[in-house]
Amino acid sequence: MNGTISKPGQSGERTALLILNKSQSNDFRVLVTLRQKHLVQKVDELLINKKRKEAFDLFYREGEVNGFYPIGAKLIEAPQLTLMEDIL
Fold first, then answer.
1. For position 22, what pLDDT does the model report?
2. In a 3-state reduction of DSSP, which class is residue 23?
3. Which residue, of 8, 44, 56, 75, has the greatest Cβ tally within 10 A?
4. Other C-beta atoms within 10 Å of 20: how many?
5. What residues contact 74, with CB distance under 8 A and at least 6 apart?
6. pTM of the full predicted structure?
7. Closest CA to 14 of 53, 51, 71, 58
8. How far apart, in Å, do the first and last CA atoms of the chain sit?
9. Domain extents for the chain?
10. Can you tell me the distance from the alpha carbon of 71 to that of 29, in angstroms, rounded to the nearest whole number?
11. At what angle do helices 37-48 and 52-62 cross, to 10 degrees?
Protein backbone atom coordinates (compact mmCIF):
# COMPACT_ATOMS: atom_id res chain seq x y z
CA MET A 1 0.00 0.00 0.00
CA ASN A 2 1.27 3.42 -0.90
CA GLY A 3 -0.10 6.76 0.21
CA THR A 4 -0.99 8.39 3.47
CA ILE A 5 -4.06 8.81 5.61
CA SER A 6 -5.27 12.39 6.03
CA LYS A 7 -5.36 13.65 9.59
CA PRO A 8 -8.81 13.83 11.17
CA GLY A 9 -10.65 16.97 10.12
CA GLN A 10 -8.63 17.42 6.91
CA SER A 11 -11.13 15.72 4.64
CA GLY A 12 -14.52 14.09 4.94
CA GLU A 13 -13.73 11.60 2.21
CA ARG A 14 -11.04 9.18 1.04
CA THR A 15 -9.98 8.61 -2.55
CA ALA A 16 -8.13 5.45 -3.53
CA LEU A 17 -6.67 4.00 -6.67
CA LEU A 18 -7.53 0.29 -6.70
CA ILE A 19 -5.29 -1.83 -8.91
CA LEU A 20 -7.26 -4.96 -9.66
CA ASN A 21 -5.87 -8.49 -9.82
CA LYS A 22 -3.08 -8.57 -12.39
CA SER A 23 -3.74 -12.14 -13.52
CA GLN A 24 -7.42 -11.37 -14.17
CA SER A 25 -7.37 -7.79 -15.45
CA ASN A 26 -3.84 -6.84 -16.54
CA ASP A 27 -3.45 -4.17 -13.85
CA PHE A 28 -6.75 -2.44 -14.53
CA ARG A 29 -7.05 0.61 -12.28
CA VAL A 30 -10.19 2.13 -10.74
CA LEU A 31 -10.29 5.47 -8.92
CA VAL A 32 -12.93 5.38 -6.16
CA THR A 33 -14.08 7.69 -3.35
CA LEU A 34 -15.69 6.97 -0.01
CA ARG A 35 -17.84 9.90 1.12
CA GLN A 36 -19.84 8.59 4.07
CA LYS A 37 -18.19 9.54 7.35
CA HIS A 38 -18.65 6.12 8.99
CA LEU A 39 -17.03 4.39 5.97
CA VAL A 40 -14.10 6.82 5.99
CA GLN A 41 -13.59 6.16 9.70
CA LYS A 42 -13.83 2.40 9.14
CA VAL A 43 -11.24 2.41 6.33
CA ASP A 44 -8.88 4.57 8.43
CA GLU A 45 -9.25 2.11 11.31
CA LEU A 46 -8.59 -0.86 9.02
CA LEU A 47 -5.45 0.74 7.59
CA ILE A 48 -4.12 1.71 11.02
CA ASN A 49 -4.58 -1.93 12.06
CA LYS A 50 -2.79 -3.12 8.90
CA LYS A 51 -5.93 -4.76 7.50
CA ARG A 52 -5.26 -3.70 3.92
CA LYS A 53 -7.29 -6.47 2.28
CA GLU A 54 -10.38 -5.47 4.29
CA ALA A 55 -9.80 -1.79 3.38
CA PHE A 56 -9.49 -2.74 -0.31
CA ASP A 57 -12.74 -4.73 -0.08
CA LEU A 58 -14.55 -1.82 1.58
CA PHE A 59 -13.45 0.59 -1.15
CA TYR A 60 -14.39 -1.98 -3.81
CA ARG A 61 -17.90 -2.56 -2.37
CA GLU A 62 -18.82 0.92 -1.19
CA GLY A 63 -16.71 3.36 -3.19
CA GLU A 64 -18.11 5.77 -5.75
CA VAL A 65 -16.30 5.18 -9.05
CA ASN A 66 -14.55 8.28 -10.41
CA GLY A 67 -12.93 6.61 -13.40
CA PHE A 68 -11.39 3.52 -14.96
CA TYR A 69 -7.78 3.69 -16.12
CA PRO A 70 -5.69 1.20 -18.07
CA ILE A 71 -1.97 1.25 -17.31
CA GLY A 72 -0.38 4.38 -18.75
CA ALA A 73 -3.59 6.45 -18.72
CA LYS A 74 -3.36 9.73 -16.82
CA LEU A 75 -5.47 10.03 -13.64
CA ILE A 76 -7.91 12.93 -13.30
CA GLU A 77 -6.90 13.44 -9.66
CA ALA A 78 -4.21 12.21 -7.29
CA PRO A 79 -5.50 9.50 -4.95
CA GLN A 80 -4.84 9.58 -1.21
CA LEU A 81 -4.20 5.82 -1.25
CA THR A 82 -3.13 3.15 -3.70
CA LEU A 83 -4.22 -0.40 -2.93
CA MET A 84 -3.03 -3.31 -5.08
CA GLU A 85 -5.20 -6.41 -4.92
CA ASP A 86 -2.32 -8.77 -5.80
CA ILE A 87 -0.22 -7.89 -2.76
CA LEU A 88 -2.89 -7.68 -0.05
1. 64
2. helix
3. 56
4. 19
5. none
6. 0.78
7. 58
8. 8
9. 35-88
10. 7
11. 160
Q: Where are the alpha helices (DSSP H) in 1-88?
A: 22-25, 37-48, 52-62
Q: Which helix (H) or strand (E) holds 31?
A: strand 29-34
Tell me the per-residue pLDDT of 55-78, one tens digit each, with 9 for 90 and over. Answer: 999 999 999 999 988 878 888 788
Count of alpha carbons within 13 angstroms of residue 61, beta-carbon side: 8
Q: How far is CA 23 from the centre of its chain?
A: 19
- In this predicted model, what pLDDT tens digit does every residue of 6-18 receive, in sequence order? 444 355 899 999 9
Distance between CA atoms of 18 and 3, rounded to whole angstroms? 12
| Rounded-to-integer distance, Cα 39 and Cα 35, Å | 7
Among 2, 19, 21, 4, smallest CA distance to 68 is for 19
